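Morning!

This is the sequence you dropped in the shared folder:
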Amino acid sequence: MIKLQHMIGLPVLEIDTGKQIGHVKDAWFDEHWQLTGIILEGGRRFLSAMKSILWRDVLICGEDAVLIMNDTAVRKAKPDEVCRTFLTGSNRLKDLPVVTTDGEQLGRISDVYFNEILGTQIVGYELTDGFIADLMEGRRWLPVPPDPDTVMLGEDVIIVPAGSEDRLETVTASDSDIGRNEP
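The structure's back. C-alpha cells below.
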C-alpha cells in the first residue's frame, strides 16, 4: 500500500535520463475519488494551468522517488480539471471529518492509502484526533468497507456506515508520520 502523504515532496525523475523534473506537491482525484494524477511544485493553482502528471504515466512510486518515462508525461492541467485534491485547494481530502451514518465522528483524515496494484481507489484512511491525541493514543486506520459504495465522499465530510468504529485499528508510530510533512 502507498501512503499518499509520503509521496508529497518526493522528487520526480525521468527514467530515461535520470533528470529531475520536479517534486510532488499534491495529488488529485476524479469525482469518484480515484487517483488521477500528481501535481508538481511550481504549478500555479489558481492561474491558467499547473504542472501535472497523470497517474497512468507514473512508472514507479518508490520510497524515495517517483519515476516517469520522460518529460513528455508532464502536462498542463487547468484548475477546473483538478477539482479534488489531497492537500491543497478548496475541495481537499486532508482534514475532512469522517462521520458514521449514526452521527459519530471518528476523526479527521490525516492520510489516505491506496494499493497501486489493485488500481487507484482509496483502500483506507488514517484518522487523527489532533496532535496531542496522536502522541498519546496514536492515529487510527480505517479500512474502506467491503462495499465501497457505502462510503459517501462529500465536499465537507466523509460518511461511513454505522459500526465502522469497530473496524478502527491503532497505527503505530513507526507506521505513521506524526508531525512530518504537515502543512
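Headline: Residues 176-183 have pLDDT under 50 and may be disordered.

More detail when I'm at my desk.
O.
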